[in-house]
Design a protein that fits this description.
Two copies of one chain form a homodimer. By secondary structure, chain A is an all-alpha fold. Chain A has 19 helices and no strands. Chain A is globular and about 60 Å long.
Amino acid sequence: MVAVNSLVLATVDPFAKVLIYLIIILVSVKLGAELFERMKQPAVLGELIAGVILGNLVLLNSGWNFFEPMRAAILADHAAISIDMLARLGIIILLFEVGLGSSMKDMRQVGVLSFSVATVGVIASFVLGYFVSTFFISEVPKQILEIAPNFNIHIIHMFIGAALCATSVGITARVFHDIGRSQMIEARIVLGAAVVDDVLGLIILALASAIVASAEAGTIPSFFGIAKLTLVAIGFLIGAMVIGSLLIPRVVGLGAKFRTQGLMLITALIICFGLASLAGLSGLAPIVGAFAAGLVLEEIHFKDFGSDVGIKDLISPISTFLVPIFFVQIGIQVRLESFLNPAVVGISVGLIVAAILGKQACGLFITRKGIDRLTVGIGMIPRGEVELIFAGVGKSLGVLDDETFSAIVVMVMVTTFLTPPLLKWAVDRNKKSEPQAKMQDS
Amino acid sequence: MVAVNSLVLATVDPFAKVLIYLIIILVSVKLGAELFERMKQPAVLGELIAGVILGNLVLLNSGWNFFEPMRAAILADHAAISIDMLARLGIIILLFEVGLGSSMKDMRQVGVLSFSVATVGVIASFVLGYFVSTFFISEVPKQILEIAPNFNIHIIHMFIGAALCATSVGITARVFHDIGRSQMIEARIVLGAAVVDDVLGLIILALASAIVASAEAGTIPSFFGIAKLTLVAIGFLIGAMVIGSLLIPRVVGLGAKFRTQGLMLITALIICFGLASLAGLSGLAPIVGAFAAGLVLEEIHFKDFGSDVGIKDLISPISTFLVPIFFVQIGIQVRLESFLNPAVVGISVGLIVAAILGKQACGLFITRKGIDRLTVGIGMIPRGEVELIFAGVGKSLGVLDDETFSAIVVMVMVTTFLTPPLLKWAVDRNKKSEPQAKMQDS
């Protein structure tokens, strides 16, 4: 194995290495996804675990360190840079797709109930995560102290709390769909709240990254600064939607006048990359812009192209190719050896408990009768792409060390893993106590 | 402009810069393609020229040097590395698509006539290109002499000759289609020959690169060594096809048993990347493998997936996104200032003449009556992706300096530009002298 590995590393040009990375990643991601689907588990869990295995094969003393360049703090290797960039494009495309899946009309229809459910869950998760962090993390990582000696440790606690906030709309939707209960009232509340969570999560990510960056630059973010950032983030989303709804039909209409092939897809990609880089230039995470682009774009905008395939069908092959690379790459960066340290096990367990309990607060303000609060609370448990993005951003900012990064990824895995059986139990329990359920049983 | 540009370069993280590159590239490529389509010219010409303009805006003393990192001999910038990698993925996907478009059955049906037309045209173009090169190029580039003081200049002449060989099947097919003559006998001969040309061109590229690499390593490639390489290249293609036809239905069948989403596309990509990196590991260009993968894969292999979209429909959005990046990137690297040097203008004109005359030899051995040799000869003129790949590989090996690289790209542009009007003229001229044409006119 050593021989093959060093041969490959030494003699292959960077692009051939990119191809080999891609083959290994695509094969293992699909094996992982398949295995988990057959065990009736979410496929994304299999993709993450495939990444964890690839990244940690080196622990077997096999000499297989092919993926080490992708785990280093600074990507020095052309192939690792390329895969990292494909993963980032993947996450942009994923958030664009999520945005395409939920229209602005849906957002308005979600209503006050979903909005309050989301807000309560986000606040409770943040507070619990913050306290778990104060309990386990007592010092600022060295690499941060080197660049910012006065870095305040509370910023780290805040970042970790923020990394627990958002329910993954993708996983939740998938679980309700798999148990055949997408239409129940609790499912609709949870899905609506999860969409709100995505938006809140992205705003919080924008805030958290900006605060870390300003603290690293030696300035303590003032209350005024934070308020300004919040306004920028919210303003960006609202602005993108308002201007978008006015401007985008024209941009798309202009694209439809072109005779060149593939213009429908290219127009959509330009809008997606355009809003993503605008978000980046405004100090937000590029995914915020990609999500906003998806929200604003509707299938109906593309009717002038007279195409019989929809825009989602055109984006789908690109996401099929690129999105798994993101999940695998996150998995690859998990260092299993971290868990030999009892403190890391402690913080992982702490974060998992905080993540689960935090969302049980969601039902607190539900006063309408006939809604099962526990089902809502459990439905809100799974964390996903937003948390993984938090973990990735935190690691690249230096605010999360390898151990905390690994703990957050494990928290995502465990919450995703626990939700399907818990939710099934909650729904079944509910069914027995309701007369309506009898009709369905008979 | 200076301010914006340095702001962007200085403060934006590499990924945001990748997004900005992508937006500029996608917008300008589609504007270029559209403009040329409206002028009834091949879209690919517009894409190349869009790239030339982007890369040479710096000449306007505008301070706009945003694309300089993509023109440097060594890509030092993360964003430039990423775009380069996307362009390479694009060319892999393009050759995979070309391969998917021509089945092994087609290859067998092309027949002896197309094969002889292709071979004669390739040999004549090679010989003419070689002599043009001896006329204009009298010394080995310094960067090569530094690593290989005994480098033989005839290897450069050979490389340039080889860079004229292959007719672009894509452009030829497009032109015949645009003038509504895809079914005429000359068109079928030319298209068949162009497919053979692709294969011959890829074999020649494999040979030429290997000879350059061995000369750079200080060894003079022996006749035996060249013969061995030829056998490896031909053996690879035949081997890939034979083993592929046996193995690939099983691999695809295995993929079809999976329940995970997107497996059809992922299976195809794994086969494409797999053969591409196998080709790379055997010392051939990765595109040879991608083309072989496309040849071997047939729509019918994927019937077990029970999907109502074909594999080409799934690959198409990915190529719509990535392929233009390749053409723009080639255009960006053209240095217009090279043409201030009369010698560069000379070699460009020489190569263009060699490229046109070389293919007029194609008709020499056509003895069957009723076939217009001039139409065949003109139909074979356009050069395209294989030559651009030659130019790119030659530049990265150091065997082509900026001037010769630019001359080859200009040769591709001019041949592509001249073919549509010339072919129309040849076909019309033919029509008048044939009674059959009258029936169509009435």
